[in-house]
Amino acid sequence: MTPVFKQPVSVLVVIHTPQLDVLLMERAQGDTLWQSVTGSREGDESLADTARREVAEETGIQVPADALTDWRLSNRFAIMQRWRGRYAPGVTHNTEHVFSLCVPAIAPVRLAPDEHTAALWLPWRDAAEMVFSWTNRDAIRLVAHELSAA
Questions:
Q1: 104 burial type by CB count under 10 A (0-12 exposed, 13-18 middle, 19+ buried)
Q2: pLDDT over threshold 80, residue 3
Q3: What percent of the chain has pLDDT over 70?
Q4: DSSP secondary-structure letter at 106?
Q5: Of 63, 136, 130, residue with least CA distance to 98
C-alpha cells in the first residue's frame, strides 16, 4: 500500500466576530499550542474549499465559500521537525494561505477531539500574543488592522 502524505499546501483561517474577538483552539498534542483553524489541502480541492472543510471539521461551523475572505496572502515556512513524517520524504517547507471568517457573535464550537482539546475567544491583541506561530500572529494582526481601517 502506498503511503498517503499531506500536501505542503495549507490554509489558515482566522475566525472572528465583528468586534474582533478571535477564536483560538489548543492543539491536542499536549504542549499548549494555541492556533486558529489550519489544515492541508486534499486532492485538487480549491483553497477556499480547503478552508471551508477545515472550518467545518475543526469547529462544526458550516459556511458557504463566499462567507470566507481570501486575503491573497501566503506564507512559506519550514515544517516543524516533529511533523515532517506526515509529508513525503524530502519535503521541508509548507505554503500556507490566509483566510478569515466573520461570525455574528461569540459562540461555542464543536472541536475535533483528535485535533484540539480546548477553545476560547479572545480580543484580537490577546489572541495574536497567544498563538504559537508567527504566521498565525501576523494573520490575526492583518485581519484586525484591515477591518479596523474599513
A1: exposed
A2: no
A3: 99
A4: -
A5: 136
